[in-house]
Amino acid sequence: MSARPVGEPRAATVPSEALRGRRVLVARAAGQADALADRLAGLGAIPVLAPVLRIEPGDAAGVRAAVRDIAAGRTTWVGLTSPNGVDALDEALRAEQLDARVLDRLRSPTGGGPAGLAAVGSGTAARLADRLRILADLIPPRATTRALGEAFPPGEGRVLLPRADLANPELPGLLEAKGYTVEEVVAYRTARPERLDADVVRSLGDGTIDLVALGSPSTARNLIHLLDGAPLRAGAVSIGPVTSQACAQLGVEVIAEADPHDLDGLVAALAVAACR
Prior knowledge:
The protein is α/β, with parallel strands linked by helices. It is built from ten helices and eleven strands.
């Protein structure tokens, strides 16, 4: 596993003890922080949990209607851009008293083209395998929505995108340029907590938190908003280029960027940052 400090070559080896004793802010949504926190604790780091966003229900009726379209054979692909989208799809299937076998009905309208389930990266594909016991048919080489759109083969028919309310608008355009009709459904919404814990704000300002793990653009934006002008003296580590771009727009220096853009890459990037 490797990680790339921004503007530097990819690191070949990360010392296993690099994170020992380091305090790392895990700024993921409540209920989604445990996997990263457990990995960090296993490497001797001290994870500090401070959710900066909440995952809330989206258009449940819309996702259920989309599932019925799949069951009726009216959908060619489902593009899953996060584990939360997988969860929403699973919940809609259960609400319609269906199971993952209905996804076998994804097909090209002409019957001869490619069809199936596309996952943006290994984390989303793993959630698909865990919750629905099914493997993704398409995973791009890089875990970004642009890479996902570029990896789709030319085709026709409908592509269902069960995504967040604030999802990147780039993907639908890429798919439409390849011949598809895109159906976007707000599968979940992201909301911001009212405040950060005062001890966390103080620790981010006085340097007693060493690193901040940023797993999405929303995480970065919400963190800066919640700090409300208070200093951020911890090193920011990004899960990928889209999050790094959001950090740049916020005036936050990213000292390491994950590669690959998943949980493994983020842990490795945090270790690289700890060595700087």
